[in-house]
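Exercise 4. Each item below gives a protein and its sequence. For each, produce the structure-token representation.

Item: UPF0145 protein D6858_01300 (Tsuneonella suprasediminis).
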Amino acid sequence: MIVSTTTLIEGRPVRSYRGIVTGEVIVGANIVRDLFASITDLVGGRSGKYEEVLARARKEAIAEMKAEALALGANAVIGVDIDYEVLGKTGSMLMVSVSGTAVSV
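Answer:
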């Protein structure tokens, strides 16, 4: 399945629009990962553990969106938007949401 942030896929005209599709994943941050991230923040550098969690959540949200598109008979999703949001009283959860338009090309 083709997934694109653009509204067109070059050389592949849209034959039919199937509808808006979404995928959402909410992940919690655990204390050990928070501790290592705090240490990384103090000494500088990137927080590899958080980056891994973000990447996994994004991939899962996209997979969920693609499954929804497939169920509608689509073979592509165009105009994809990816959003990140911090949730919870203490910001202890992260939501990754993706949305796009399911189409047949």
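Check: The two ends are 10 Å apart (CA to CA).
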